[in-house]
Design a protein that fits this description.
Helix content: 25-40%
Number of helices: 8
Low-confidence stretches: none
Largest sheet: 4 strands, mixed
Bound molecules: zinc ion
Structural class: alpha+beta
Order of helices and strands: EEEEEEEEEHEHHHHHHHE
Length: 227
Amino acid sequence: MMFGGTEISSCPQCGKWIKRQTYGSMNTFGATIWSDNYIVGSMYINSLEVAICAHCEKCILTKDLISEAYIPSVLEMYDEDMMGNKVHKTDPSILEDKYQDAKALFLPGFNSLKEALNYIGEGEIVVRHNIWQHLNHRFRKKKIKNLSKENEQFYINNVKKLIDLIKIENDNDQIRLAELYRNIGDFESSREHLQRVEKEELKKLRPKFENEIEKGNRNTFILHDNR
Ligand SMILES: [Zn+2]
């Protein structure tokens, strides 16, 4: 994976400077893709849709961030002129000085995500999607860990709310809905959504989900293992 420079923006919650590492290219080579579309791979970073501001510790949606400045990486600092000589393009130290108080974003934990539901407004679907994947991490461990009774109920309610929030726009939404229904044991609705998938390439995934339904399995499973 290629690392790019640093993007500076201000936190939509507290207005202070935050910085984000940018990435040149990503791919799923050698990655494991799970049935909830969570991807684990060395050349891939699950998009940080929800992140925590290190200043105010509130959840923010990264799509809401407006770029204020870009601090290039060392590799991007130079250009080549027509003769192939290295030419100094930008001096990032000037920018770095101006934004020296900028703090990096970090990944939200379960409690921060849960709390975010109280103030995130339109971002509810994104937060609930992240909560879903977060609680599914228990299936990605060698030994599956059970949730507490309270969290199990929270998980089910979250899946149901997510189902209500999803507006079907394409086949990926059908797959996501099929998976959500399977997670709460509504196998019939899950099958119905799988049947509505039209794209050939996604149709190929159908037997994998149907096989799990056949087994009566509600757990998140590995869809593709490219390792
Ligand atoms: Zn903030």
